[in-house]
Amino acid sequence: MLNRPNSLSNPAVGIAPKFVPTLSEDDAVVQARLLKALADPTRLRILSLLSRHEGEVCVFEIVESFTLEQPTISHHLRILRDAGLVDCRKKGLWAYYYVRRDSLGRARDVIDGLA
């Protein structure tokens, strides 16, 4: 039997909530993905490396800058891409990554919105 709240078991049913989230569920998912991407030391270091360069950085150069294997770096880069923090351009066998500066501003806005 499905247990549904009713006015007898839950006196708050039918009463308007005092506090309403100002963030939609969809926006919360997007923002959580962004913050989750930033919540890893390796990804922060990759982002720091990329942000110091005006242009693109070859994935080979990123791997050479760390003591991690290429598949691990690629995994972290994919998470950063999925969050919209970095993007890449493929040229032959290599991928060249760069920071999406607009997304860094968006990340700052998300954090400022929580303050």
Automatic annotation (TrEMBL):
The molecular function GO annotations come to: DNA binding; DNA-binding transcription factor activity
Instruction: Identify the residues that the record assigns to the HTH arsR-type domain, covering every copy.
Output: 23-115
Keyword Transcription in record: yes
Task: Report the domain of life of the source organism.
Answer: Bacteria
Pfam families, sorted: HTH_5
UniProt keyword annotations, A-Z? DNA-binding, Transcription, Transcription regulation
Q: Which NCBIfam families match?
A: HTH_metalloreg
- What is the name listed in the Swiss-Prot or TrEMBL entry for this protein? Transcriptional regulator
> Which organism encodes this protein?
Ktedonosporobacter rubrisoli
